[in-house]
Design a protein that fits this description.
There is one protein chain. With 260 residues, this protein is an alpha+beta fold. The chain has two domains: 3-81 and 223-257, no CATH class; 86-219, no CATH class. Helices cover 22% and strands 32% of the residues. It is built from two helices and 20 strands. The protein has helices at 3-26, 225-257, and strands at 36-42, 45-49, 66-69, 72-79, 86-88, 95-98, 102-106, 112-115, 121-122, 128-129, 135-137, 147-151, 156-160, 166-171, 174-176, 184-187, 190-192, 201-203, 212-215, 217-219.
Length: 260
Amino acid sequence: MKALHIAATGMKAQELNVEVISNNVANMRTTGYKKQRADFQDLLYQNLRRMGAETSTTGTIVPTGVQIGSGVKTAATARIMTQGTLEATGKELDVAIRGEGFFQIQLPDGNTGYTRDGSFERDANGTIVTIDGYTVDPGIDIPEDSRDITISSDGTVQVIDGNGATNNLGQIQLARFVNKSGLEAIGDNLYLETDASGAPQIDSPGTDGYGDLQQSYLEMANVDAVTEIADLISAQRAYEMNSRIIQAADEMYSTTTNIR
């Protein structure tokens, strides 16, 4: 009887499903977080009677056949890259992307990370950095005596210096990917380029296909609490049903072994 093993794969799949949902809920207030979804595929089938086989010398064809499945497996934990809501913060170095694109971050190992988290700060040298101290690429240095930092929708950073003059310090660039769901999440709200994502395409915010920037806003996670609760209930019920199948298969085994 294969029912025990088939139901076991179902329980394992729903256990992983609950883990994905729990991670989404845990990151409901994580800036720029993109939720994940567990995708499943059925396993190999045993053909007891193959469809399309001939059943007579006259060429009669089996219309459906007999196939017994062997359970389910996890195919992917796809990341849903939809836009999160923008929340006003009032902080001049907070920046949200409205539309497509990622901020480029210079990592300590020399690689470039990508993020939707625009909660930026200034380090001791005045350089715009992430909350972990990683430089936002391209590096923009804000002089010590500057005030009234302005980040326009196209990424241009301007300040007023000590003499009251307006200075243009540079422009924040955005990166796009052919398959942004193929980026590798490494934690700290950062992603890395992969063969699946394709190479980054760099351009200015607001240009064709790129989102624009909103100063003093942050993008919140795109996690919907009601949807996650509904998915959690569905996963829990599926887990319970698979456990009942294991219980029923065990009782059938017990009945068979008690036959005299």
